[in-house]
Each structure stands twice: as C-alpha cells, then as structure tokens.
Amino acid sequence: GFIASDMTSRNSSTQLWLITHYHENGSLYDYLQRTALDVDTCLSLASSIICGLVHLHVEIFGTQGKPAIAHRDLKSRNILVKSNQQCCIADLGLAVMHSQGSDYLDIGNNPRVGTKRYMAPEVLSEQIRTDCFESYKKTDIWAYGLVLWEITRRTVVNGIVEEYRPPFFDAVPSDPSFEDMKKVVCVDQQTPVIPNRLFSDSVLSALAKVMKECWYQSPSARLTALRIKKTLKKLNNSVEKPKLE
Length: 245
Known about the structure:
The protein is an alpha+beta fold. It is 38% helix and 13% strand. The chain has helices at residues 28-34, 39-57, 121-124, 133-153, 178-187, 202-214, 225-244, and strands at residues 2-10, 13-20, 68-70, 79-81, 87-89, 96-99, 104-105.
C-alpha cells in the first residue's frame, strides 16, 4: 500500500515519487509459476484475496470512510503475494467507484475493459448493465472464481499437482481476442475444467464448489464477495479446530 509521496527536481526536470510497500514474492501469477502449494497456503491465499475484494466492494461511511469500488481487472497478475502468504489486490487503474450519497458512477467510455481472458460473459456479449454498480461487482466475482481455479490447480493433493496454466488455456490462444473468448464463454458456455483430484480433499472440494458458484452465466446467481468470505472463514475454522485438540 501507499507509504509516502514526494516531488523533487533533478537536472532541471521535476520528478514525482510514489513510495509503496515492496512485496518480493511478486504477483500471484509469478508466485504460482514457481510454487506448488499445500492446502493451508491455498486457503490463506484464497481467503486474503476475498477479504480484499469485500473491502473494495463495501462502502464505508464516516470520516475514515471510502466509496464502494469494483476492480474490473481482477486477475493473478494484479494480485501481490506478501511474505506471510497473504495477498493484496493491486492495479486499480480500471476501477469504478460508487457512493450512495451522490449515486455517481464513473465508468469512462468503454464498458468492455479489463483482460479478455478474465471477462465475464455479460462483458464479452456487451449485455452488462453499465448504469448499475452491482453489475461490476458481479464481474469481479467471475474473475475471482478464475483466480481460485489457478490457485487450486497448483495445490498438491496426494503428491499430485498440475503445472501452472492460465484460465481457458486449453480453449483459446495465448493472447485471445474478444471473439475467441466470446465463443468459449458466451456461445459454448464453457468454464475451466476442475481437476478430479481436488474432490478427494474436503477443503479443495469446498473451494471447487465456490468456483462453480462464481461462474453462473446469470450475474445475479453468482455469490457475493461477503458470502464467499464467510464460507472461507468457516472453512478456515474447520481446518484449525483439529489442530487445537
């Protein structure tokens, strides 16, 4: 997060400095390339991302308040991994804000923004309700399900783990076009294949269920960030209890 900013002059040119935290693990995308996860780490990464998304999505009132924010470009490259295996969400360049007080929604000119591979069906088909803030939160949930799929694939179960692959790696080219994604996601209504091995672990099986509920074609049928946060908290508690006995 933000630490400080400064303005300095060097060789008669003005430099604007922005100082932020440094996370040496890099992005979740980088981290998953080189790291196979255990179930605890998988759950820690997934839980911390959804906590961040809940914080963005919720409007907080008061002197230390904030508007509700939808990210609109959530993906593993825009999530940083801290040294304690917790994640933080980065790159809010395409985010939209909404405040109940003003009811103002700033989305710019193009509703079809973000990374094509992670776009929800209603964005690809241009059916999204651009005047409704809730619509953008639902696209974040679709993308969260894809990130969760990336994380769980890299989680070891019974000594088995897949190589890192991006969502829809087996269905579209490495740099897919809108039309590529639209055919797979909207026309064929495909979702990423969940490895069968995940269902032999109770935690990963529960995460697979969450994923599926992020991928409904109908945005209103998808889970909310808060609902996912509560589900994962319950999951965390069920994992921790046996350790205390």
